Amino acid sequence: ALDSGEMGTIAEPLHFSLMGALHLNGTLTGDRGRPLFNGQIALEKWRFRGQSFGARSSQVAYQDRQLIFKKGSLQAPAGAPKKEAPYRFEGSRKFDAPPSPAFDFQIAASSADPQEILTFFKLSIPLKTRATGPLLVKGNPETFFVKGPLVLEKVILYGESFDRGSLEITVNQKEVLLKKVILQKEKQRLEGDGAIQYQGTFQVALKGSSLRLQETRAFQSAAPGLMANSALEVEVGGSFRKPQLKIVAAVQNLRYG
Predict the structure, then answer these.
(1) pLDDT digit string (tens) for 34-65?
(2) Higher pLDDT residue, 10 or 91?
(3) Which end of the chain is more exposed for a tag (fewer CB within 10 A), N or C?
């Protein structure tokens, strides 16, 4: 096992901002100019870009300037509830692709917290949910993307609760794009798109149908006792701390009491 200082020394030429305890077991063959390695790798108490994450393990092979990972697993960050690893992955990292190594990973997320993904980019949004789906991670440290469809369960966004949802997420070096967003609660449904920038701003546009205003937290606080069925167009943006909200509603069966 290598301690965190040695881990940092190894990670630097691989273009990783990575610290932690590395455990490596396997066989090294070949010659000095063309080494071959097959074995197991595990990281404990590791940090990436200054953020703490859970244990990571994988089968690993090195050949022809390429690291190949198979049957990998990634636990939730330190302090999160213990459970089955929410991320499984396979992929490769090539070191003959200038100006920096290229990576190509396929990740299977299972009941994962989206905040764990956004933590890599020092983002936090007022969203509580669990996400399941495949993600493709590709590029290099300077130009990369994370992309895939996610199914959401028990969504709470700005205090509004939904039974389920789905979206297509794309993360690149500039922003997080949210496409084909669908949020559902019984027969109520919101659809739309959005984007989150790393400086802490965002924009979201949603359209809803068959909505019951009396079950919407924003209307309950603004007009308690108001009841109606509504179709909505919602535009929200700005900063997460002080969002700006615009709502256009077509109301039916309006009543009070």
Answers:
(1) 889 899 988 776 666 566 666 778 899 988 88
(2) 91
(3) C
pLDDT tens for 192-234 read 999 988 888 889 999 987 777 666 766 666 666 667 677 888 8
pLDDT digit string, tens, across residues 106-123: 999 999 888 777 766 667
